[in-house]
Amino acid sequence: MDALCPSPPGPSRPQRNYERIGERTGTSFCQTLIHLLKGNIGTGLLGLPLAVKNAGLVLGPVSLLCMGVIAVHCMRLLVKCSHHLSGKMNRPSLTYGEAVQYGMENVSWLRRHSQWGKQTVNLFLIITQLGFCCVYFVFLSDNIKQVVEAANATTFSCHMNYTNQTQVLVHSFDSRLYMLCFLPAFILLVFTPNLKYLAPLSLVANLVMTASLVLIYFYSLMNITYPINLPKVGRAKDYPLFFGTAIFAFEGIGVVLPLENKMQRPQTFIPVLYLGMSIVTFLYISLGTIGYMCFGEHIGGSITLNLPNCWTYQAVKLLYCFGIFITFALQFYVPAEILIPPVVARVSERWERAVDLLLRAILVIFTCALAILIPELDLVISLVGSVSSSFLALIFPPLLQIVTFHTEGLSPLVTIKNIIISLIGLVGFLTGTYVAVEQIITRNTLKHEETFSTYMVQ
Q1: Per-residue confidence of the chain (458 residues) as pLDDT tens digits?
Q2: Closest to 405 in 3D by CA, of 65, 5, 161, 103
Q3: Half-sphere exposure of residue 134: CA atoms within 13 angstroms, side-chain side
Q4: Phi and psi dihedrals of 263, rounded to 5?
Q5: CA torsion sign, 121 to 127 to 133 to 135?
Q6: Collapsing DSSP states into helix, strand and coil, what is residue 164?
Q7: Neighbours of 39 (CB within 10 A)
Q8: Are 134 and 176 in contact (CB under 8 A)?
Q9: Residue 123, class by beta-carbon neighbours within 10 Å (0-12 exposed, 13-18 middle, 19+ buried)?
Q10: Which DSSP symbol is given to 309?
Q11: Which residues contact 362 (CB under 8 A, 6 or more apart)?
Q12: Which runs of consecutive H residues, i.e. helices, occur in 150-296?
């Protein structure tokens, strides 16, 4: 997300260790904390109850805690390497891609390929952010479809839904058609010339999403059934799906350097990081565990899909959908700022605006097409997490520390630790991607067989 919060010009790194001299626009401790929380809490949080189901009631929360510790450690490594490299290059700040590029220049046999390091990081940032956009298409279509189909059965009574699923009274059209209905709205949204115009709506979106989360917590806590007879450890073949969903949720490393670069007092960022990620990890573990305990084996790809047929919780879905809709523009900004400017620079000034809008529309259509091809919320989240988030959050930061400090007496234990973390990320990438793709193929095959059987009966 380096493009979302570009590094501002400022004094040299030695000055920045104290404060941003002469800058009044730097963010405070609390502002940075809010941005950090916002950058880590999204649709991934709502999918964690299913992730806990895939890992087990005991193994799931323990694994989330371990992954949270490792993810925060990798964020800390990225900040440390950025500080060292920016001082060495006499730069006020660095983006994630630039840190990898300058880190590779420390190694003689990697120096000539250092530009590829920056481009690789940007590629995974693009994949991750477009993946988020695909998830948003599926999330909105699934939730809005459910609200429409359950409308005639919706009441003002929010009693416990013992079927653990929103009751559908009238079936409507396929969720992929809902995605096509949302497509024009998303295209118009990304045509917004400047994100500052969305700031008021973004503030409202944050407030309604927070209120929705409070209501989801309340319902889940109040409706846990006892005794709890859920498996403590899930099936081994489902654990890679847990990894993909969990790392998707924890993939906030892209906002770390932009937020640190924008602080008025950057030396206070590490306490912000530890406090913010502690809150995030607590939310992830608590909602994942409570949601699974409440809805059990019937938990959906998003916990919102299990809420009862009452107007309060149907409103929760609609409000959260509104928040996700506005957030789409923020997530889309990153790949747009990386991909579009180089193309626009090649056309005449007369056509710049038209080409810019055309490319934005094409990118949105592309993400919608991907979502239509894989209209399974839980599997899309797991696939995006396994493919791209594992590299950005787990694989790259430890390797960056090795290349950054390899000439400065990096201890063998630190090197071994970094290699182990990167291997964990690599194994998660391979197994998570394989299992997610396999499940996608299996589900699509079953759907086609059911559709064919229904057609033959008719």
Answers
A1: 434 444 444 444 443 443 443 344 677 888 888 888 887 888 889 999 999 999 999 999 999 999 999 999 999 999 999 999 998 888 888 889 999 999 999 888 888 889 999 999 999 999 998 999 999 999 999 999 988 888 776 666 666 554 445 555 566 778 889 999 999 999 999 998 777 777 788 888 888 888 999 999 999 999 888 878 899 999 999 999 999 999 999 878 888 888 888 888 888 899 999 999 999 999 999 999 999 999 999 998 999 999 888 888 888 999 999 989 988 888 888 888 889 999 999 988 889 899 999 999 999 999 999 999 988 889 999 999 999 889 999 999 999 999 999 888 888 999 999 999 999 999 999 999 999 999 999 988 887 666 656 556 55
A2: 103
A3: 26
A4: -75, 145
A5: negative
A6: coil
A7: 22
A8: no
A9: middle
A10: S
A11: none
A12: 175-190, 199-222, 239-250, 256-262, 269-295
Q: Residue with structure tokens 């107007």?
A: 311
Token code pair at residue 418: 């970094």
**Both structure tokens of 182:** 């949302």
Q: Write phi, then psi, for 155 (nearest 5 degrees).
A: -125, -175
Q: What residues contact 192, with CB distance under 8 A and at least 6 apart?
A: 198, 329
The residue to which tokens 């709890």 are assigned: 228
User: Which residue has tokens 């220049």?
Assistant: 105
Instruction: Quote the CA–CA distance of 61 and 49 in Å, as a whole number.
Output: 10
Tokens of 297: 């084996």
What is the rounded end-to-end Cα distance, in angstroms, of the chain? 51
